Amino acid sequence: MTTAPTPVPASASAAQSGGGDPGPATPATASARTAEAPRPAKSRARGSRAWLAALPLILFFAIGFGLPAIAIAIGAFTTSTDAPDGGGTFTTDNITGSLQGAYWTALWGSVKLSLLTALIAAAVGLPLAQAVATSRFRVFREAVMSASGVLANFGGVPLAFMFVATLGNAGEVTKQFGLTKHGWSLYTFSGLSVVYLYFLVPLMVITITPALEGLKVQWREAAYNNGATALQYWRHVALPVLLPSLLGGFVLLFGASFAAYATAEAMVGSSVPLISMQIGDALSGNVLVGQGNLALALGLDMIVVACLVMAVYLPLQRRSAKWLA
Which of the two ends of the chain, N or C, has the fewest CB atoms closer than 10 A to its terminal CB? Predict the structure, then answer.
């Protein structure tokens, strides 16, 4: 006596064979599909709430940065109110004048100073940040990070006075080691670079330490297990991953050096040509009659330089976020 085979539902047989009519949907299947279906209404609600949460920051950015930038751009291409025609007339003389003579020298001097100090600070700050990131001593880590947070924000007249009293012509270190006989002078381009490094190196440590902590230990172990040396690991693994973060730190250091004013004004004055010094002189009235908006043109030049530097960093930002996430 044989037993008749048990009939299989059409939906189950189709699922087993991988084709055919799936058959009518059961209540459980329908409810599962309903639960898995996207809910665009709730997604839109979450998106609107996110925009509302970011609205104060957007308004602050628009008022604090957007409106001044627009005002600078408009003023850079119009005549000043003290001009013979009463001001408000479109002109390109401000932009042309800001890129000639002493103003161009000051702009190029600021770019050179910012590039040099940013490169040195990045080169010095990276190994120091690596020592902090890999240190097993919590006290050392906290001490370095706390000191870096303080020193990165220490500038202006107090910083200038400290270096004048230490490395100036009559400074204690200068007299003790006879630095003047060897051609040292604090009130030069090289002296100002040393002063800027005082706050740029700690700023680099603060900026790059989180990226160094994001390097996975498995990458180093895998490299060593495959016979790579420490130099090969840094050249082929760590530095390519850290490159966008390094460029971001360099951009931050460049901007901090490029926009610094109080320290240079208090220490070197006009002996080192800088664009920030020229803008300060223009705002204080030390300009020719009818060219008051020249300071706005100089400010627009600084904005353009900063945007060009940022354009180098932004395309590589996603690459760093992908690996260090």
Answer: N
* Cβ-based neighbours of 109, under 8 Å, separated by 6 or more: 189, 272, 273, 274, 275
The CA distance from 37 to 210, in Å, is 39
How far, in Å, are 84, 189, 277 from residue 102 at the CA level?
Answer: 24, 16, 11
SS3 114: helix
pTM of the model: 0.76
Q: Which residue has the tokens 């020719």?
A: 288
Q: What is the CA radius of gyration of the chain?
A: 31
pLDDT per residue, tens digit, the chain (325 aa), is 444 444 444 444 444 444 444 445 454 444 444 445 455 555 566 656 777 888 888 898 889 888 988 988 998 898 877 666 666 788 888 899 889 888 999 999 999 999 999 999 999 999 999 998 888 888 888 899 999 999 988 888 889 999 999 998 888 899 888 888 888 999 999 999 999 999 999 999 999 998 898 888 888 889 989 888 988 998 888 888 888 888 888 888 998 999 888 899 888 887 889 998 888 887 776 555 556 788 889 989 998 988 888 777 777 666 655 655 5
The phi-psi region of residue 224 (left if phi > 0; otherwise alpha if psi is between -120 and 50; otherwise beta) is alpha
CA atoms of 120 and 190, how far apart (whole Å) = 12
Q: What is the C-alpha to C-alpha distance for residues 88 and 81, in angstroms, rounded to an integer?
A: 7
Residue 246: what residue type? L
Query: Among the residues of the chain, which ranges form H helices?
Result: 10-17, 27-36, 40-61, 67-76, 93-98, 101-134, 138-151, 157-167, 172-177, 189-213, 217-225, 230-233, 239-259, 262-267, 275-283, 294-313, 317-324
Tokens of 146: 């706390």
86: enclosing H helix or E strand = none
The CA-CA-CA angle for residues 235, 237, 239, to 5°, reads 55
